[in-house]
Structures are given as C-alpha cells and as structure tokens.
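Handout, section B. The chain below has 81 residues.
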Amino acid sequence: MNLQDQLACVYDKDSFIKYLNLLAKDSEENPQEWENATVSLYLQSIACWIEDWSARYGNEEFEKLDYNEMAKILYMGKIYE
C-alpha cells in the first residue's frame, strides 16, 4: 500500500505515529519521489496546500482542526531529541 492509500488508515494517535514513521522511511528510501527535499520546503508546501485547498473547497474541513495542537507537534519536531 502506498503512502497516499495509507492516509485512509490514519484515525487515531497510534495510526498517526505509524504514518509519520512511514513518511520518514519513505523520504530516506525514495528521496527522488519527494517534491520538497528540505524541511523548510516541506513546511512551506504544507502551508501553501492548506491555503489553496481551504480557499478552493471551503473551510468546513479545516475549521475542525486544532491548529494550536498541530503547531505544538511541528515545534516539538524541531527540539525533541
């Protein structure tokens, strides 16, 4: 099952952690398949995708997200050993 198909299997903390580990492994094993090879490009593309997707399809889906918790997760990835 590819990474895109695996998205359907993410529904809780454990499956989210599993998916993050799959992403990390894929970035190491298949760097040629990644459009954004650096952390800064990766984060910028996430920001752009959220802006574009929410503008195109409405904000209902994006209003459900806890942005503060997502920001904490991303920040901890910067400083956690």
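Note. The two ends are 30 Å apart (CA to CA). Compare this with the example in section A.
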